Amino acid sequence: MKPGSRTLEVTKQIDVEAPIDHVWAAITQPSELARWFPEAIESGPLAPGTRGWLTWKAYGRFAFAVESAEAPRHLVWRWSHEAGREIDAGPTTRVEWTLETRPDGGTRVTVRETGFLTEKHLGENTEGWDHELGELVALLGG
Amino acid sequence: MVNLFGMTTPRATAPVDLDRIFSAIADPTRRAILTRLASGSATVTELARPFPMSLPAVSKHLRVLERAGLMRRQVEGRVHHCQVVPEALDAAERWLVERHEFWNARLASLRDHVEGSDAAAGAAPDPDDSSWR
Question: How much is the average pLDDT of A109-116?
Fold first, then answer.
């Protein structure tokens, strides 16, 4: 991605009172993930190349694939946002987790989801995504 | 159709293809065309005028917008009148808002999980905590 370019993205941050290794386990171990993320998970421990499915009763079963995992700080996966669709069968979004130890011993968790586009578009300079979308919606009287 | 974030696509209207909508508005030329159309319908020739590109190139962009459901055209003889379909963008915006809500909720669950299980994993169980089963 070009420096300075912005893509359509959602970034969220939260501070938790737990050591970084504990949070890392919570986002990479299937048994832990099932306690707070999906209702069911079909996957081995999240490592580069891991593929699996996340299931929510209300929404369905979603394919994901891990791109990189550098314990205990950085995890990236891609997932499909259409229930039942194989990971390679359509567009995916990229979910990037960053963990940082805080001075108080807790952990800062940042999750950033980008994409919403096909690969072809990721190379384009799609500046000001949310901004542009918001402006267009306002302009069109949405 | 229900996606991960619980957004339902009303059956009564044309299906909303968010992939296509987001792809369509990823392009600055197409955003400029939509912006122009926001001030009223226009013919293909009028839409093409401000852009340093051929009419066929502009037509290609218009087809992408049409396929995404963002634009429709009415044909009168040889003249094509283009109009924006704002509802398609509403769907995209609603989806983004839901995505924000989704991550807010999931991160709160993560915090509850790691902070709760951290306490539970302590070597000495808290004798005052009788709520734990």
Answer: 82
